[in-house]
Amino acid sequence: RVGYTGAPSPFSRRTPDAVVCHLRLLSTVSDLAAPLTDVPPRRPRWDWRRTARWFGAEVLVVVTGVLVALGVGAWWQGRQDAATERSYLEQLAADLRETERAAADADAFLRPVDRAGSLLWLAFYEADAPPRDSLLAWAERSMWTSTVRPVTGTAEALVATGDLALIQSDSLRTAVTAYLERTRGRLYDHEQFDRVWADAERRMRRHVDPTESALTHYEPTVLDGFLAEMGVPEADLATLEAPFPFDPGAFLGDADALRDAFEMANAKRNLLTVRRAMREDARVLRERVEAALAD
Length: 295
Prior knowledge:
Elements: H1 16-32, H2 48-123, H3 132-141, H4 153-161, H5 170-204, H6 210-217, H7 220-229, H8 248-252, H9 255-294
Helix pairs in contact: 2-3, 2-4, 2-9, 3-6, 5-9
């Protein structure tokens, strides 16, 4: 070339080796210029520590939720059980107070009745016979009675339903069951003594006509009300007379009458003992229940 004085190009004279190198260089450049998508993606390595941490966190959240739910449920159930226990104890105390009241009312009513029966029995042993009217009044009054049954509905329900376990105090639970057992025994005794009294009372009516005493000692208004309840309000009291007048001499000389009078008086004394025992049992348990409610 005209005017070129520089060094000759290495490719100005192409040798076979030079051609091969040139082709290799072009191939390398072509490979580098190829799209990156043609390179296969590298598979990521599994990180077990990261997975374990995630799994542990999930388990912790679930377990914590379950424990919180159980704790809240136990707390709520405890509150409900405490409210149910208090309701039972309040009703039990009310039942026991009612038992005490019924026994006290029966004692107040039967005190003069029991005294009349005792006076009638002791009249057989007196040297001087009491007046006829007194004997007749005692005999008629001794035929009265009144029955007392303890109120045990709440205590029975506690045992029957298994709710007795709601009472937290072991000693109070034992006291409730013991009270029920004693009360059943008291009721059995009461029924036995009441049956003895009822049999003697029926026999006493063969010796004494209680209507004669009623016609003599009761107010006319009381008798009128009684006759009205019997369905004969038109009956005239002034025309009524005892068909078999009471004979005090024959009565006090009758051994069967003495035996009947004693059995009536003795049965009444036993019934009084049972009633007072029922009342005392109720009082003792009521005080324990009220102490538990006050805590």
